[in-house]
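Quick board copy: two proteins, each given as sequence then tokens.
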Amino acid sequence: MIEGGADVRLLGRARFAEAIAANGLTLTETGREPVTLTDLNFRTDEAALAGSSVVALCTKSQDTVHAARLIAQHCPDAHVVSFQNGIANLPVLRESVSNLSGSVVPFNVTSPAPGHFHRGTEGDLVIGSNAPSELTDALTRAHVGLQLVEEVEPFLWAKLLVNLNNALNALWGGSLRDGLLQRGYRRVLIAMIEEGLAVAKAEGTEVATFNGRAPAQFVSLMGKPDWLYRLIMDRVVKIDRTARSSMLDDLELGRASELDHLQGEIVRRGRQLGVPTPVNRAVMEATLQAFQNAKTPRLSGAQMQKMFLK
């Protein structure tokens, strides 16, 4: 947005402010030259929200209620665009935010060094068509791919199913690519996605595509033999060899997890609807234990298959 000419104030935690003040803000992704920004207007005081016309909300789902209160207090007339994972954030925000748009961020971003953020996968942002033009125009000028849609929720459901992989990556402890290249790993992920689809069907939700692919296509691709999946990954999926989930970062850095808003969402809704979700439940429990132990158990795909698929 900054490259697109927007007047941007960044509001975040002190550790980010300190890292960016010391190192600048560097953005990288495979196949493109790094972008480094300096002299950013980065604030840690929540009063910096005052006067904002648009708020791009990027907090973890567990912080949504607190963020909504701050927005209602400091800039109640701002248009809020939620760039968050999970399917429960928009209902929470609607309780206190009058101008709201949803969004799906399809690509993976991690921080390999202070002030450095790396995009490890591809995809265009999906944003509700009611989003303010000052935001979408700035993103377009910055050459950020956009897809405007009338209903965001079906796309958020698709992203939720893909994000069920985050817990497996935390249990694996290595790159996303190396985890997904193991058939047992993929079989567990397929089982979790199928449970999620059953829950969505019971709710009457038709899940949209993710990066142009329907959930059934993901399941079909992941069911291929290892040698064929490797070819597909190199030519079609295109996952950066260094990409990993933010949940693995959170585990290694001693932060809270988003599990309650990923596997937890599937398990909770499945229980309410009478839809069995044993694999999501087992993976969630194992990952919660990893967070309690403050380290990844480094499970192989074969070990995951044995543990989670009865």
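And the next:
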Amino acid sequence: MILLGSTGSIGVNTLEVAKKFGMNVEILVAGKNIELLNKQIKEHSPSIVIVSDKEDIAKVSHHCVYAGEKAIVDVIKDSSSELVVNALVGFLGLRPTLAALAAGKRVALANKESLVACGAFIDTSKIQPIDSEHFGLWYLLQERAIKKMIITASGGAFRDWDLNKLQNATLADTQKHPNWSMGQKITIDSATMVNKMFELLEARWLFGEGEYDAIIETKSLIHALIDFKDGSTTAHFAHASMQLPIAYALNKKMDENILAHVDLLKVGSLEFREILPERYPVWQIKNDLLKNPARGVVINAANEAAIELFIAKKIGFMDISKNIIKAYEKFTALPKNVEDVFLIDKDVRSFILQNKG
């Protein structure tokens, strides 16, 4: 297989599962964590390695190292591997997804932005989602009429904060996730609830038209629920580990134990909360976005640009959502093709960065 984003948490978990199944890793693609990458090279012996920056090539302990987005796309086209695991973060992951699908490969997708920005032009029949929420929905699907598909959210770093203090939240504050440790951007997205908006859009592209929603489940033990038209509801319980959805993406005949079961007696109780726009302002455009899912490219570009400004301390935390909503109201044209997606992405980023909130 080809693994994009090998040094992130999903990449590390993917390599653990690959080792368990004895799978060959043909290509590793990583960012700036060269120390961990070199350990992965030693253990998995890939044929080719790609890093993000040319300056890092000399630091990589491998005879065949390339750098940059074009190199990723080129090796995907030329590779003999049938599976691409895309765990890249951000819009950067879109071109590799498109290249993999064009080459007839199967894609195990953790890169949310591919479907959020370009879902209208992607054939999802070759995609296996490895987000816990989409895996949970897939796991629950039956031959029964569905009323609503629901995914869960942790609530992020500020789920219990005083609303009046949110405007003063710092970058360090956003990283204090109540349930687990993730990368910087996705933890910010969890705090704004943008991450869950993205996952609802992904679900819409993966499972088709229908009613979708999200709720907060504070212990992150339920990942998805389905309301059936007959009045019954099913829920997918599992400990929060990416290894289960990854295992199914790598081995569709999964019949071995990956996780310990959830012991409900030890859990004792669960708490559910509504996602409210007062705490998560971006939620006010959720319903309109799901009716117009091709506009996902706008919220993705605005979000990435606003996060860039927030990290640079040019805007406050609550201004991230304000910028997304402002861009969503301004850019209303739907992309007609993949080229439009990249053009709209560029225009939205320029708009946010030039206006600086």
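Board note added afterward: The chain has a mean pLDDT of 94.
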